[in-house]
Amino acid sequence: MNKAGFESQGGANGKGIWSDRKGEPILGPLLGIGGAVVGGFVGYWLFFVIAKQGFYALALPGVFIGLGCGALSGRKSTCLGIICGILGLAAGILAEWRFAPFAADDSLSYFLMHFHKNSIVTLVLIAIGAICAFYFGRGRKGGAWLRRQKPPIDQSNPS
Question: I want to staple 15 with a disulfide (CB 3.0 to 4.6 A). Which of 7, 19, 66, 93 is the partner?
């Protein structure tokens, strides 16, 4: 199928079947969500590796969720930022529960019911992770690697 035939399948706007209403490819947000998931796993794993060394880097799961999404999305999107912020909050809470559950009951439901009893440092680090996940998860135009554009042709010097 030629390019004109492929683009004609996109409907009346002719933007193609893999484009959104603005004509931007749909693959970007899907790659961003995939990057957020991979970044979340990396941040979660790094948190425990660093915790074994005696440091408390609870913001890492959220930060890596945002970095993974922002690097691969290829566009700036507040919606992706909100999704990453929520995922970053959940990843921080989950990491803290696995790292230091309450002594009375180590279940997740008990931890969530008594979450406010954690130290202020813990709560602030989880909030920092969620804020960074939102900020970095919004991405930027071009993603982590700027898309190369063809330089303009200089018409003044015909040689």
Answer: 19
User: 25: which DSSP letter?
Assistant: B
Give residue 159's pLDDT.
Answer: 56
Backbone angles phi, psi at 19, to 5 degrees: -120, 150
CB 35 within 8 A of CB 101: no
Number of compact structural domains in the chain: 1
What does pTM read for this prediction? 0.76
What is the identity of the amino acid at 59? A
Domain extent, residue 84, equals 24-137
156 within a domain of the structure (yes/no):
no
Question: In angstroms, what CA-CA distances link 118 with 21, 59, 94, 124, 138?
Answer: 45, 15, 13, 10, 29
Token pair of 30 as six digits: 């899907």
